[in-house]
Amino acid sequence: MKVLHLIDSGGLYGAEHMLLTLAQEQVKQGLKPTILSAGEPSETEKAIEIEARRIGLNVIVARMRPGLNVGEAKRILSWARSEGFDLLHSHGYKFNILLGVLPKRLRGTMPLATTLHGYVNAYFGSRMSLYEILDRQILRRLDGIVVVNERMRERLPKEVVRSSTCVHIPNGIASELPEVGVLPSDIRDFTQRHRIVFTAIGRLSQEKGLDQLIRVAAVRRNELESIGFVIIGEGPSRLSLEELTEQLGLKENFHFPGYLPNAGQLLPHFHALVMPSHTEGLPITILEALRAGVPMIASAVGGIPAVLDHVPSASLIRPGNLHDLGRELVNMASRRPGAIDVETGKALFHQHYTSRIMADRYCRLYDCMLSSKKGKVRSANEPVNSIQGRSE
After folding, report:
1. I need a labelling partner for 186 at 20 to 30 A (CA). Which of 148, 199, 262, 338 fits?
2. 192 with 169, same domain?
3. How do 112-116 and 144-147 pair as beta strands?
């Protein structure tokens, strides 16, 4: 089975890591995945393209005019048909919209699936909010819709939610624990100056709630005086976050090393992971922390509560609640690492959130979509017997 994954990536974060991991597992299954990475004509090589090539995945670079570029979407469809792809898999609103608005006859026998990695709660009236509204409406025209957590269904049209084409497939990562990464010298120097160091990893944008983490550190200054915070990532909020630490006199307590590839491999160096987000899908970093046995403090948003609700090493907080966040930071800082039960979280990860489990579920969905195109009736909830090593 030849699968064309389509994405317009803004970095190498959760959605990109999920896609790369899925494609690697699909190769093991005997499928033939290709990643089409889109961008504007002026963009140079993207991080996802570099990483895909590094790990041996087939990647096609596509640069196109931004906006509703229907002509380019038609050309991509024509190329995909000529290359013999069996199925299209979109990762983001760009290709949901570009391919979803086209007449289905142009897709021929190629069904179109999408993974909804999460919405960002864009300000009403902004361009992003309009894209999100259009995205949710266009889902009716797709053949398979994947939500990475059940709570995402609440934001979708009822017609889509009730459809058998909408299924829940949690994200997954490799079951093998990677070698612990070496701390860059700037982070190593920072950690040596603090008794305990927390980390936050991800795109630095408003919905991640990192400004609230800084404000809590200021309010709880006396209790968190010897605590450091390493904020790993890049994004539109980086400058304002750095300025906020200076305004509140916390420049020595926060370090911003920027984007780091494979930041998840650095998790064991830190006391805990902090994720005070306002919105999330199912963050890959949460799964990496479970696998590595790293405690965490996270907002009860998106798919996070379903994963962490009964994990002793995790503390859930109400999104936007500074009191909750401050209390749990102080509590977590007072706990010795050896006294925290991390084995329960590790066991949960291996039972439900490995990349093998995720890929098996996607393969079942693909089979269902292709069978439907051929006029056969099959349930996406049928058990998978033996998908590993399978080839079509």
Report:
1. 338
2. no
3. parallel
Query: Are 167 and 262 members of one domain?
Result: no
Residue in this structure with the two tokens 């919405």, named with its chain if needed? 119
- β-bridge partners, 298: 275, 316
For residue 389, being part of any structural domain is answered with no
- Give the torsion through C-alpha atoms of 346, 338, 262, 211, to 10 deg: 100
> Tokens at residue 158, please?
């009822």
Q: Is 229 helix (H, G, I), strand (E, B) or coil?
A: strand
Domain count of the chain?
Answer: 2
Which residue from 133, 273, 142 is spatially nearest to 202, judged by alpha carbons? 273
Q: Please tell me the pTM assigned to this model.
A: 0.85
Query: Is the residue at 148 inside a domain?
Result: yes
Nearest to 303 by CA among 323, 284, 321: 284
Q: Which of 219, 214, 211, 223 is nearest to 253 (CA)?
A: 214
Beta strands in 188-236 (DSSP E): 196-201, 227-232
* Ordered DSSP codes for 71-93: HHHHHHHHHHHHTT--EEEE-SH
Residue 385 placed within a domain: no
Q: For all residues of the chain together, what is the average pLDDT?
A: 91
Would 390 be classed as within a structural domain? no
| 21-44 pLDDT tens trace | 999 999 999 999 999 999 999 999
Sole residue written with tokens 């897709």: 107
Collapse the DSSP code of 381 into the 3-class scheme (helix H, G, I; strand E, B; otherwise coil) and give the result: coil
What's the CA gap between 351 and 338, in Å, rounded? 23
